[in-house]
């Protein structure tokens, strides 16, 4: 899980390194419809990570765009980030995944467990046909980023949704939407309860650095990994990914993906992966979903607890 994609066009233009860390789209996934260089099956991080077939609500953000202004060449189609279905037609992800793209960029959501494999197969079946490749793997929707993004270091407002055609995702995949926390629920629980709770991060990201900060192989397959609580800030929940403590964690391409916590016997979507340390070894930093700002953004798109 510790890595997912490499930076999309929008994030590349963002000077803040914290944004760049989790958005990067893997170079192996680069290219046009050929999607040459299939990614290895492993992702998230390579330690303490497992396949997550049961996390059917976790999906990948698939982006289709023209990067050369030449209509005679095919669009590019790639998965770039992770995210979560929070109702039957709303996919939650990060704003740094949905902003800064060229005009005409189209956003899609896939709940395939192996989205990279599905893209490779679709590219082989529909060479040069970006529309067919995207449609074979994902459902197209409309992206809505927080209007205040990129905000400040105290509150980046790094949150976005992709609204999908009603019932179309459920017509293609079987999933149970994630449960959002109630207003202030993480703060009300307090550090002691959060420290005792089970935490799991999920996504399609790449592995932690094998040959330094830029060696991030893998990606494109839904995985999960355990975490432990570190700290709760006004808009962030910080989670430990340290291997020696039995943890795994998120990395490039896991941006926008879920960080679940088990509180009172209920699995809650506590936050979305945004950033962390460059080599993806120590800390995952997630945007809290129980805050007034996050809830105000989500309210027009989904029913809140």
Mind explaining what this structure looks like?
This protein is of the alpha+beta class and 305 residues long. It contains eight helices and 15 strands. A hairpin with a 6-residue loop joins β14 and β15. The longest helix is centred in the middle third of the chain and has 12 residues. The N terminus is likely disordered.
Give keywords.
305 residues; alpha+beta; 6-stranded antiparallel β-barrel; 6-stranded antiparallel beta barrel; 15 strands
Please sum up the structure shown.
The protein has eight helices and 15 strands. With 305 residues, it is α+β, with helices and mostly antiparallel strands.
Q: Could you state the order of secondary-structure elements as H and E?
A: EHHEEEEHEHHEEHHEEEEEEEH
Distance between the termini: 28 Å
What gross morphology would you assign? globular
Radius of gyration: 17 Å
Helices and strands in order:
Layout: E1 2-3, H1 9-12, H2 17-23, E2 50-51, E3 58-65, E4 76-85, E5 90-93, H3 95-98, E6 106-110, H4 115-125, H5 130-137, E7 139-145, E8 160-163, H6 168-172, H7 185-196, E9 198-203, E10 223-232, E11 236-240, E12 251-252, E13 258-263, E14 266-276, E15 283-288, H8 292-298
Parallel strand pairs: 1-12
Antiparallel strand pairs: 2-10, 3-4, 3-6, 4-5, 5-8, 6-7, 7-8, 9-10, 9-13, 10-11, 11-15, 13-14, 14-15
Helix pairs in contact: 4-5
């Amino acid at each position: 899980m510790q890595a997912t994609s490499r930076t999309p066009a929008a994030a590349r233009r963002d000077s803040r390194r914290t944004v760049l860390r989790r958005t990067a789209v893997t170079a192996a996934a680069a290219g046009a419809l050929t999607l040459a260089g299939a990614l290895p099956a492993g992702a998230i991080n390579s330690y303490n990570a497992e396949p997550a077939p049961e996390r059917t609500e976790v999906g990948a953000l698939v982006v289709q765009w023209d990067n050369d202004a030449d209509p005679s060449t095919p669009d590019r189609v790639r998965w770039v980030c992770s995210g979560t279905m929070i109702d039957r037609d709303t996919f939650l992800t990060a704003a740094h995944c949905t902003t800064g793209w060229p005009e005409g960029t189209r956003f899609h959501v896939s709940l395939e467990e192996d989205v990279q494999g599905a893209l490779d197969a679709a590219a082989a079946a529909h060479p040069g046909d970006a529309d067919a490749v995207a449609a074979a793997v994902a459902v197209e929707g409309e992206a809505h980023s927080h209007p205040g993004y990129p905000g400040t270091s105290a509150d980046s407002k790094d949150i976005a949704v992709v609204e999908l055609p009603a019932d179309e995702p459920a017509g293609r995949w079987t999933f149970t939407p994630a449960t959002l926390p109630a207003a202030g629920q993480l703060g009300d629980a307090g550090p002691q309860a959060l420290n005792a709770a089970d935490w799991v991060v999920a996504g399609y990201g790449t592995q932690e650095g094998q040959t330094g900060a830029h060696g991030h192989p893998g990606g494109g397959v839904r995985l999960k990994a355990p975490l432990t609580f570190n700290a709760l800030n006004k808009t962030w929940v910080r989670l430990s990914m340290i291997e020696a403590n039995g943890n795994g964690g998120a990395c490039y391409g896991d941006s926008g993906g879920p960080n679940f916590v088990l509180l009172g016997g209920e699995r809650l979507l506590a936050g979305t992966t945004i950033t962390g340390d460059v080599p993806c070894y120590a800390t995952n930093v997630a945007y809290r979903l129980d805050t007034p700002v996050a809830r105000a953004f989500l309210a027009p798109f989904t029913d809140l607890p």
